[in-house]
């Protein structure tokens, strides 16, 4: 028999649900799903690696001082991928036309991979081959991810199964040992899972790779696309980027040192923050799941409900993100929706005249909130800064319609576009 699922649709009740945390278990669903998708065993406390320990490891290695190190590495790696080879200005390439989603996919995958899993010590050619192979394998595996979450066995998808195993093999301890500048997260997991089977460890690292890419890539696309197609957003973002870089003493150069902005400077960019937030509001479709550990009474804004053990409580924030009372004209991209009248971050929104504690939830909530959310926003922001800094950007079709969302991934996070959008770019000659 299946489980009863209770969908909480009133955003004023979200806080009430999270206050019942002692009755609700988020770990069972998340780690069981992870085991099905990536092929590792479910977390066994007898190994000393409890879900709490692993969760704390993610927070420790993705926030605080570790976040500063990740942010610095990502900025360098993005420029390593995006900046052209050193050539005379006269030989700089003219306009390049490409699918925007494809462009975001390859740039963010490579830069993100290098940031988490370091650089190959054997040489650039070997590294490029590894990245290209892993990019292709990642796409094949990720394509069938919704089916795996739904419970279908991966053996039904021969090529995707092969791709997953190849990805995991590249992340084995022996292969990671050939790489330099591993992130603190990857090193921490290697040490924590040192008593596990090597392939078991590798599949946990694969889960980290997927979590770092699968939502960040479409989020990057939507942020870039929405910004480019809005003249007002482009103007405001360009002015903010130029001002930030000028204050930081950074100048465009294809031959000199890459630009560098610290976390404090990146955090003081409310226009880009608002563009990213608005893009994610329109494209996120995450499902927040909790399982009842015992029978209890759930007290909500509009009444009390009896919940049975093993019942599932589900929050679907997209309903809130598209609520016209909270967000007027909710299907329209408004780059300044998250800015107040002074151009600072706006955080206060209302439903039925009451202030909402939770009004923006693309990264989950409470104990299940994504530990890497701060890094995800930083890397998208870095990408947008560099795109505006290094390139002239245009849509091939200036009045192109917004592509529909790929609803096959509803519940998993940021929905990718159903079709790609052509754009063109060229390096600035300054």
UniProtKB/TrEMBL annotation:
GO terms for biological process: bile acid biosynthetic process; cholesterol homeostasis; cholesterol metabolic process. GO terms for molecular function: cholesterol 7-alpha-monooxygenase activity; heme binding; iron ion binding. It is found in: Endoplasmic reticulum membrane; Microsome membrane. Heme binds at residue 370. Pathway: Lipid metabolism; bile acid biosynthesis. Gene3D superfamilies: Cytochrome P450. It holds the Pfam family p450. Its main location: endoplasmic reticulum. Substrate binds at residues 36, 215. GO terms for cellular component: endoplasmic reticulum membrane. Its cofactor is heme. Keywords: Cholesterol metabolism, Endoplasmic reticulum, Heme, Iron, Lipid metabolism, Membrane, Metal-binding, Microsome, Monooxygenase, Oxidoreductase, Steroid metabolism, Sterol metabolism. Belongs to the cytochrome P450 family. This is Cholesterol 7-alpha-monooxygenase.
């Amino acid at each position: 028999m299946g489980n009863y699922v209770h969908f909480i649709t009133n955003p004023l009740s979200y806080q009430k649900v999270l206050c019942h945390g002692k009755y609700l278990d988020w770990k069972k669903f998340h780690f069981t799903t992870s085991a099905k998708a990536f092929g590792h065993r479910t977390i066994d406390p007898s190994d000393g690696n409890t879900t709490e320990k692993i969760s704390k490891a993610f927070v420790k290695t993705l926030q605080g001082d570790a976040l500063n190190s990740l942010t610095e590495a990502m900025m360098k790696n993005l420029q390593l991928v995006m900046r052209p080879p050193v050539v005379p200005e006269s030989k700089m390439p003219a306009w390049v036309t490409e699918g925007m989603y494809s462009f975001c996919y390859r740039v963010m995958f490579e830069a993100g991979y290098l940031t988490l899993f370091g650089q190959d010590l054997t040489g650039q050619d070997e590294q490029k081959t590894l990245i290209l192979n892993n990019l292709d394998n990642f796409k094949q595996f990720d394509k069938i991810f919704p089916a795996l979450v739904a419970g279908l066995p991966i053996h039904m998808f021969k090529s995707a199964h092969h791709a997953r195993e190849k990805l995991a093999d590249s992340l084995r301890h022996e292969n990671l040992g050939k790489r330099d500048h591993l992130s603190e997260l990857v090193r921490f997991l290697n040490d924590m899972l040192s008593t596990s089977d090597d392939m078991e460890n590798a599949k946990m690292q694969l889960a980290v790779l997927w979590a770092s890419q699968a939502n960040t890539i479409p989020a990057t696309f939507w942020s870039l696309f929405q910004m480019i197609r809005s003249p007002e957003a482009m103007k405001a973002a360009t002015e903010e980027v130029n001002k930030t870089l000028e204050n930081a003493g950074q100048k465009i150069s294809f031959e000199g040192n890459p630009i560098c902005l610290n976390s404090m400077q990146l955090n003081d960019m409310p226009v880009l923050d608002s563009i990213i937030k608005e893009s994610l509001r329109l494209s996120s479709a995450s499902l927040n799941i909790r399982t009842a550990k015992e029978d209890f009474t759930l007290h909500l804004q509009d009444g009390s409900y009896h919940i049975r053990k093993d019942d599932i409580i589900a929050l679907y924030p997209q309903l809130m993100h598209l609520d016209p009372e909270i967000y007027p004209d909710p299907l329209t991209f408004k780059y300044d929706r998250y800015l107040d009248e002074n151009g600072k971050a706006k955080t206060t929104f209302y439903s039925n005249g009451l202030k909402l504690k939770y009004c923006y939830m693309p990264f989950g909530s409470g104990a299940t909130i994504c530990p890497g959310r701060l890094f995800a926003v930083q890397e998208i922001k870095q990408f947008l800064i560099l795109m505006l800094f290094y390139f002239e950007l245009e849509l091939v079709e200036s009045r192109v319609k917004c592509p529909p969302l790929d609803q096959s991934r509803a519940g998993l996070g940021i929905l990718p576009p159903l079709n790609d959008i052509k754009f063109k770019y060229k390096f600035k000659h300054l």
